[in-house]
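Write out a record, focusing on structure:
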Amino acid sequence: MKKTPHIILTLALALMLGAALNAADRVDQLRAKLFSRDIPDVLVVAHRGDWRYAPENSMQGIERSISLGVDVVEVDLQRTKDGVLILMHDSTLERTTSYKGKGGDKGKVSEKTLEEIKKLTLKNGCGIRTKHKVPTLEELLVATKGRVLINLDKADRYFDEVFALLKKTGTTRQIIMKGGKPNDEVKRLYGAYLDEVIYMPIVNLDKPNAEQIIRDFRAGINPVAYELLYKHDTNPLPKKLARELKGNALIWYNTLWENMAGGHEDECAITQGPDAAYGYLIDNLGTRIIQTDRSELLLDYLKKRRLHD
């Protein structure tokens, strides 16, 4: 029997509603994993989006990350001259966009309006100009609502403005903030937001006060996860904290550069195999969140080990 336009419209609306509900369910599921503080699988964080596929901090790279199945997308924030928050790692435009200054002018973001920046196009990881545009934070939040967790880097400088946008777009529940401030300062600066936005401390394990910092946080805001850094495996703290934090908080490591996780970085995964990089962090250091520049490689490895859906 031929479907009437009314029936077709009803089916289309039902499919759209189902997709929206599934997206909302995914954010709830990811938050549940974080707040359980002890999970058998590993969450994957895409650093600046999938920037080997599309320009860093671009909507195309972020969409690619979501399609691959990452759990968190990390992006960076800067503010334009007219007060608009955009996705941009550097404080200047020269490295990542088509901006061409004169006489050493690299184009400070804070001295350019959004209109001026929107006329530029982004460069890819090889420095080649593309057709992609610089996104605003609001554009990101609207496009990814309910679909993935977002780690906002460099956001603490303007967090009152960020939070207003999160409220406006209904995305507070999917935001992760991280920083190196001590517990008391985090409570003072962000206490009003901590019931909704997830905060994770960054702790350098090579510093002499690293254990005290973690003790202060455990007695204070008691975060769901810590981002840990160390340069060499001679440091005993990573293995010690793997035991002490198990069941109390998740451990996050970055595999971007060799001095962030004892040399068990993405390049190690390529040259020596994923077991030497990701496997070491998971099996020996209790890592349950990994931020990577090689999302597809990491996801494939985790799926083979049944550590990711």
In short: The mean pLDDT is 93. The chain has eleven helices and nine strands. The CA atoms of residues 182 and 188 lie 10 Å apart.
